[in-house]
Each structure stands twice: as C-alpha cells, then as structure tokens.
Amino acid sequence: MSQVYLTGAGPGDIDLLTLKAYRVIGQADVIIYDRLANPKILEIAKNGCKFVYVGKENAKHTLPQDEINKIIYENACQHNIVVRLKGGDPFVFGRGGEEGIYLHEHGINYEIIPGITSAISVPAYAGIPVTHRGIAVSFRVVTGHESPKKKISQIPWDSFKADETLIFLMGLHNLTKITSKLIGIGKPKEYPCAVISKGTTKEQKVVVGTLDDIVQKAKELPSPALIVVGEVVKLRNQLKWFET
Ligand code: SAH
Q1: Is 56 a catalytic residue?
Q2: What is the model's pTM?
Q3: What's 46's DSSP letter?
Q4: In 79-221, where does DSSP find H-type helix?
C-alpha cells in the first residue's frame, strides 16, 4: 500500500526543513514539487527517485489543481512512497486541503507534514516579530491574490484592527490595491509597511516604508515576496539580525 506525504518544504532556508520532511524526502520513490524556494531540497532524495515538476510552465500558466491531484493519485498507484512537496506549509495557501480530500476520496493513504510557513518565518528573518507585547496582540495572514474581477471582496477589510499585524501573501502585484484599501479603511498614510522578497535565503531583500510610499520603494523586488503591515515593522531597527 502506498503512502503519500503532503509535505511542507519551509520558506527557503534548507535548514528550516522539519526532521520528518527530511526523513520522508530521503525515502521517497517519487517527489512531486512545484516552484520551490529552495530546489536544493531535492538533493536529499535517494538515487533513482523520480522527480515530477507540476509548477509554473511559464510566467502565466500553472498546472490546474485537478491535474495535479490526478498526477499525485497516478503516482501513488505506481510507487510506494510519494512526497508531494510544497513551499512553506501545505495548508497555508498551499491547496494541501484539496489534495488531501482528493486522496481521501480515492482511497489513498496520506499524511500531512506541516512546514514552517513563510508568513511567520520570513518576517522573522527580516527582524519583524508578528506579535509583540504592547504593540501587536494578534496577526492575520491574508491572501493578496484576490481576483480583481471579484465584485465583492471576501477579505474583511473593515475588521482589520489597529494593533494587529497584517501579512499578505501572493500580494506583490496587488500592492497598490492593498495599500489604498488600507488607507481607505482609515489607516494613516504613515502606517509602517515592509515588503520582503526571497526571505530566509541569501537573496533576501527587505524594503521598509509606509502605506504611502511602499509601492514606489518595492517596485523592483522579485517574487516570491510578502507584505507586512503594522507597528511591528519598526522593531526591525533593533531586531535586524539576518543581514548583520
Ligand atoms: N504555503 C506557503 C505559501 C504559498 S502562497 C507558505 O506556507 O509559506 C505563496 C506566497 O508565499 C508567495 O506569493 C509569497 O507571498 C509567500 N512566500 C513564500 N516563500 C516566500 C519567501 N521565501 N519570501 C517571501 N515570500 C514568500
């Protein structure tokens, strides 16, 4: 009976892989992966392991999710140990839930191996804690990728509180919309904001600004990148450890 592992690969720094992920990657007969923050992870695989890339074919096209589900299923029918490797954590905007449901419906055994999500670790490598006593009592991880065609946003913009850190994933190309929405709900234009690109890797770049100027400042940054909004961004002045 085959076993599928829906596995988090962590945010980029290979040392942030969990021990369990490291172990199953080493045992895998096949690894199904998409655009990973760190492709060096694949070097952990044993000799003869098959690699299946299901990520972006070019700048625009991703393999549709139902095709990826089928590929995982077909490989599970042919191999013993199948690792489906995903950036960060498989259940944080990773569509791991859809893959798990598909496997369940098709009678395939699977396990979830959580990974260190970029949502928390990338700010940490930029010296930005997502909560801080007296400054931020909560944080929210929000999609920055909502389709502009959507007439009514599912994002509860009006409920974003003053002392809460907001972390937008997949939002770089929507940065203008996100900052103007936040100004629209009453956040001050000087409100602190950071964009972190390729976090936890050697190419990490951090740009700090305000809701008013971050679009201008961050426009050259490459993907993957996330956006942090909140007073905690200022703590980077004292907590910037990775670059120093
Ligand atoms: N499951 C992943 C997130 C998938 S959505 C996780 O838990 O991390 C992909 C988004 O994650 C990207 O658009 C970007 O916003 C963010 N991201 C992933 N890796 C990143 C990195 N190394 N640096 C900055 N942002 C990253």
Answers
A1: yes
A2: 0.95
A3: P
A4: 96-105, 118-125, 175-184, 214-217
Q: What is the mean pLDDT of the chain?
A: 94
Residue 244 confidence (pLDDT): 85
Choosing among 3.30.300.70, 3.90.550.10, 3.40.640.10, 3.30.950.10, the CATH entry for 118-239 is 3.30.950.10
What kind of architecture, by CATH, is found in domain 3-113? 3-Layer(aba) Sandwich (3.40)
The residue whose two tokens read 């972190």 is 196
Q: Is 34 a catalytic residue?
A: yes
* Cis before 224? omega within 30: yes
Q: How much distance in Å is there from the Cα of 150 to the middle of ligand 1?
A: 23
Cα dihedral 228, 234, 240, 243 in deg (nearest 10): 60
Domain boundaries, the chain: 3-113, 118-239
Q: Is the pLDDT of residue 135 over 80?
A: yes
Beta strands in 96-204, from DSSP E residues, in sequence order: 109-113, 138-143, 164-169, 192-197
DSSP reduced 3-state for 138: strand
Do 99 and 149 form a contact (C-beta atoms < 8 A)? no
Cβ–ligand 1 distance for 226 under 6 Å, the answer yes
Tokens 């008013």, located at residue = 212
Gap from CA of 113 to ligand 1 centroid (Å)? 17
Residue 239 to residues 125, 129, 243: CA-CA distances in angstroms? 9, 9, 10
pLDDT in tens, 196-217: 999 999 999 999 999 999 999 9
Report the 10 Å Cβ neighbour count for 193: 28
